């Protein structure tokens, strides 16, 4: 019996056709990595990390985004072992490991003995999608945020991130987080209800491809929670992003956040798979 020859290496622009075919096996689940690949063309100066490929007998079988986030793509058990070896050998320490639950959990099992306990393991996150407008009447106040409203939006963004992730986004690089918020506004990917200089609701598109986009950072002002604001507001966001960004809208949410899950279900989102996130 012939032995399979396998290896891992950083992918280059020459590998884009093969990588696109791999990502297209599940364009919704692989949306984040496809967005990074499309926006950087695997140019190292823009990527801020690498995308590794796992090859068997010269064919690309699996991939892994290795930057601030570790995100495996169509990863086989053999690929996960090879990626884990590469991560540990290169002394990479990302902020999270994210992806389908059935891949992230065994991947983390290979890394945890060296890295120690995770700061926040989120092992069951429904991945939800929507390919139509909501049947809920949209809130007409929702609109794209203007760049001159940055100073109004920014505190709400910091509050949301701190509440959701459990760390202050300004702790590492205040300028980096400010730049990211400004970038999303400039792209037309930030949506909010702003009244009298106060953000009542906001969310943004964190990543998008020609097939789909992913919402993140859903926030309702604490004084207004539990009053039914989020459902019509998100219905408005879904309608607007389907018209201007991509036809399918996705998101993922912590399983224990029953209030958020019910909100998304009322809007019309349906769970299609389960993600997991290991926050380090």
Compile the SSE list and pairings.
Layout: E1 6-10, H1 16-23, H2 31-40, H3 44-47, E2 50-56, E3 59-66, E4 69-73, H4 77-89, E5 96-100, H5 101-115, E6 120-130, E7 143-144, H6 150-165, H7 170-186, E8 190-195, E9 198-208, E10 212-220, H8 230-244, E11 248-252, H9 258-267, E12 270-279
Parallel strand pairs: 4-5, 10-11
Antiparallel strand pairs: 1-2, 2-3, 3-4, 5-12, 6-11, 6-12, 7-8, 8-9, 9-10
Question: Briefly, what is this?
Answer:
With 280 residues, this protein is an alpha+beta fold. It has helices spanning 16-23, 31-40, 44-47, 77-89, 101-115, 150-165, 170-186, 230-244, 258-267; strands at 6-10, 50-56, 59-66, 69-73, 96-100, 120-130, 143-144, 190-195, 198-208, 212-220, 248-252, 270-279.
Report on this structure.
With 280 residues, this protein is an alpha+beta fold. Helix content is 39%, strand content 30%. Strands 1-2-3-4-5-12-6-11-10-9-8-7 form a 12-stranded mixed β-sheet, sandwiched between helices. Helix 4 (77-89) links the parallel strand 4 and strand 5. The mean pLDDT is 95.
Keywords:
single chain, 280 residues, alpha+beta, Aminopeptidase, 12-stranded mixed sheet, 12 strands, 39% helix, globular, Acyl_CoA_acyltransferase, UCP21603_acetyltransf
């Amino acid at each position: 019996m012939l032995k399979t020859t396998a290896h891992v290496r950083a992918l280059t622009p020459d590998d884009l056709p093969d990588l696109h075919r791999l990502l297209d096996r599940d364009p919704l689940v692989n949306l984040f990595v496809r967005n990074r690949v499309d926006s950087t063309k695997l140019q190292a100066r823009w990527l801020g990390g690498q995308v590794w490929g796992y090859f068997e007998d010269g064919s690309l079988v699996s991939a892994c985004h290795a930057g601030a986030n570790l995100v495996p793509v169509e990863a086989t058990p053999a690929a996960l072992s090879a990626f884990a070896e590469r991560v540990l050998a290169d002394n990479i320490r990302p902020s999270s490991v994210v992806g389908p639950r059935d891949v992230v959990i065994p991947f983390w099992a290979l890394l945890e003995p060296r890295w120690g306990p995770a700061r926040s393991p989120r092992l069951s996150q429904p991945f939800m999608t929507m390919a139509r407008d909501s049947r809920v009447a949209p809130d007409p106040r929702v609109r794209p945020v203007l760049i001159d409203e940055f100073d109004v939006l920014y505190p709400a963004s910091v509050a949301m991130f701190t509440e959701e992730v459990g760390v202050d986004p300004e702790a590492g690089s205040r300028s980096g987080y400010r730049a990211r918020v400004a970038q999303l506004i400039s792209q037309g990917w930030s949506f909010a209800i702003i009244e009298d200089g106060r953000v009542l609701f906001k969310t943004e598109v964190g990543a998008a491809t020609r097939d789909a986009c992913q919402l993140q950072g859903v926030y309702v002002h604490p004084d207004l929670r539990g009053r039914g604001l989020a459902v019509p507001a998100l219905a408005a966001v879904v309608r607007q992003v389907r018209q201007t960004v991509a036809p399918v809208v996705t998101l993922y949410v912590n399983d224990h956040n029953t209030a958020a899950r019910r909100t998304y279900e009322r809007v019309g989102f349906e769970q299609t798979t389960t993600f997991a996130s290991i926050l380090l």
